[in-house]
Amino acid sequence: MKPLSMMLSMLVIGMTSGTVMAQGSNVARATLPNASLPNVSPANSELVNRGAYIARAADCMACHGEDYTGGTAIETPMGDIYSTNITPSKRYGIGDYTEKDLKNALQKGRAPTHMLYPAMPYPSYHGMKDEDIKALFAYLQTVPAVDEAPKQKTDLPFPFNIRALMLGWNFLNVPSTENREGLSPTQQRGEYLVNNLEHCGTCHTPRNSTMGFDKEKYLSGAQLGHWYAPNITPDESSGIGSWSEQDIITYLRTGELDQRAYAGGPMGEAVAHSTQYLTHEDLSAIASYLKAIPAVQTDDKVSAVDVARLPTPINDSITHDLLAQKDYLAQAKAGAGNSSNSPESLYLATCGSCHGINGYGQPDAQYSPIVGLSSIRRDNPDALVNIILHGVVGSTNTSPIMPGFADQLDSEQVASIANYVRVNFGGLTDSDVSAADVERIASAGNEQPFLIKYAGLLAIIGIIVAILLIIFIIRAIMRKRRHP
Ligand code: HEC
Ligand code: HEC
Ligand code: HEC
């Protein structure tokens, strides 16, 4: 391992080793506070507390921050869009908003003075119930006002700086979902949570050429920058058909499912800011609804976990004992042979200090176990390769980060580690990720949909066509005048 990542991992190990004493938990996130809302207080009215829950369920904090001061960049193919201050500050926030203004912003993407960009998920909030908006409004008035503008301001290139263009976009793409027929009341609640409040589709539904939801492929998986939000329809081969409703509940509550799945990156944030706080009834409703939607099969197949092929933990205490694990690691490195470029040596040197010799990690230090995870079992290696290249930013400010290795490993080495991980910890019978695959994944930009890519050009062509039309019309009128 190169000095920087070594230092980083030592630093993180140093900071977290104080918590290593606790025994027994094999679910890193199980230690997270369970469903007690930090912003609910008995001193507040019932309406305000209901609003606090809606804010959690609609995950306003993911973008506006836990203190609602905004400034988070939402990366889009058109450029970064920054969230705004929504504290009750009169000058910098929404202190002058009426309930009607909030309703317009949430449901129609219309702030009092301008149209909003759909980086604010109003295409999903479109279906929010009036009573929920009322509660949210009451609650937002009770959060501390912060008289400060976010550090960054949105500044998109022409023609996207013309906010009125969103009217046309909204006409095509809002609302982003339709309600299904024949659902039970529980499933209807789940549908409301998934489609409207939690806006799961903003990440999990692929986009069409205008960047709206591709409704035919509802929740069937989408690329999100370096992350991939997988297919969460009940398809057996590419979705989560093999998950029970309880599995879905556990995953959304704790951010992981032992030896099956882990919520990293943007999903880790969704769990940390939002789903871990939902009531059991609401998580059950989501699970029940996700089982009732149409299964969509995609090319990105995910192999079933072959438990027999997974490694066994060295022993329980190793997984929880950093010092013992360090000795084991040194022994394993020595045993892996002289070639420092063998897949095993590469894994041990680059990943082993955090994820352990056999992939079980160090749960008490929040180094996630990676054995059996869906992200290393997919036909498509892109998600795993992206994780190795770019790392994982911890989803809460106390969780450790995983550094990216793009600058330290060459494509051959990344491919080699990916194959080692997929076969040894993913239980796949073989894996043939090549250096060329790694290069393709590393250089893949976020492909811009056609309309976005050529919008500037189209806008100019549109303006020229409009001018020509006007000239033709004026000519025709003049001709008529001359020859009445
Ligand atoms: C996925 C990110 C995201 C989430 C989630 C989100 N917002 Fe926003 N919001 C934004 C962005 C980005 C903007 C600025 C958009 C723009 O500049 O056009 C914004 C703007 C707003 C505005 C307009 C403020 C103004 O300028 O007058 C309001 C009000 C607002 N959000 C409220 C909320 C509330 C309430 C929630 C939760 C129910 C929420 N937002 C959830 C990203 C988000
Ligand atoms: C901000 C984007 C985002 C939002 C919002 C989001 N997800 Fe995810 N989701 C992801 C990403 C990215 C992953 C992959 C995580 C990983 O591999 O570490 C994921 C993974 C998952 C998985 C695991 C699938 C598997 O095969 O391992 C499930 C289940 C899931 N999400 C359900 C949901 C539900 C239900 C919602 C709404 C309540 C939701 N997600 C909201 C981005 C998101
Ligand atoms: C400095 C410690 C550290 C090192 C070194 C490290 N990781 Fe990680 N890794 C983490 C942490 C921490 C997480 C969980 C991040 C989070 O909470 O979202 C993680 C998560 C993962 C995940 C789960 C991603 C998901 O969300 O599905 C995979 C797979 C992974 N690492 C593979 C690797 C591989 C392969 C290497 C070696 C190239 C490696 N890691 C090196 C700390 C590390």
TrEMBL record:
Binds 3 heme c groups covalently per subunit. Gene3D superfamilies: Cytochrome c-like domain. Heme c 1 binds at C60, C63, H64. The chain crosses the membrane at residues 454-478. Residues 1-22 form the signal peptide. This is C-type cytochrome. It is found in: Cell membrane. GO terms for molecular function: electron transfer activity; heme binding; iron ion binding; oxidoreductase activity, acting on CH-OH group of donors. It comes from the Bacteria. InterPro entries: Cyt_c-like_dom, Cyt_c-like_dom_sf, Cyt_C_IC, Cytochrome_c-type_DH, Membr-bd_ADH_cyt_c. Heme c 2 binds at C200, C203, H204. GO terms for cellular component: plasma membrane. The keyword Transferase does not apply. The keyword Iron applies. It holds the Pfam family Cytochrome_CBB3. Heme c 3 binds at C351, C354, H355. Residues 46-144, 185-294, 330-425 form the Cytochrome c domain. Its cofactor is heme c. Keywords: Cell membrane, Electron transport, Heme, Iron, Membrane, Metal-binding, Repeat, Signal, Transmembrane, Transmembrane helix, Transport.
